[in-house]
Design goal:
The strands form two sheets. Strands 4-9-5-6-7-8 form a six-stranded antiparallel sheet. Helices cover 30% and strands 24% of the residues. Helix 2 packs across helix 3. A hairpin with a 4-residue loop joins strand 7 and strand 8. The N terminus is likely disordered. It is α+β, with helices and mostly antiparallel strands and 217 residues long. It has a single domain, classed as endopeptidase domain like (from Nostoc punctiforme) (endopeptidase fold (from Nostoc punctiforme)).
Amino acid sequence: MKKRLMEGIVVAVLLFVLYKGSESLVLEDPYDSSQYQAQKAIEYANQYVFGANRDYLYFETNCTNFVSQCLVAGGLESDSTTSTLKQGDFLKLVSTNKKWFCHSYHFSDDQPNEYVVSTAFIRANDFVDYWENARKVRTEYYDLTNENIKEAIKKTHVGDVLVIFTANGSTDHHVALVVEVDSFGIYYNSNTSNRDHYNLKEVSKEDYNRFAILHFV
């Protein structure tokens, strides 16, 4: 009996240490669509599609960062982090597809904000991995054809996230927010190549060969 008790204590301590000490460990937290207000996400996407929100960092390839901001505006809470930031660091980038966050800190009135950001917040592959695997958002993949777009129209809602995959095999995928759906197309807002209500049917099929819909709604 005493031996079993000691084994239980050891296991509990190990689990606690792993949880507290690792950025890559995340307890399963299935996505709850009731937290998400798609219209607020769309309003944000319309407001900042051509002008950056100064409360966030802006990256040279900003499409995933832009969509993450839209989701936050729609009411989705970012994860906590154990990473620390010292005054003067400006940016600490945490490489993980297990946590999604962008936290800003203001140490001094005469200095700009400083940030701790996960790659799941700003990079396409880690973003998709996080929402599909860590949060269990339903995701559907299609070859990029007009026929498949017609099929996806039936299942896609405004506020969903669109991912367009490059045809050359690189990881420079494009992430966008769906802002309108009708019988003629799926329309999105995005950054990097700033697009406002752009029809997926107009995307170059030479540059991109697949797309996915992450069903947040």
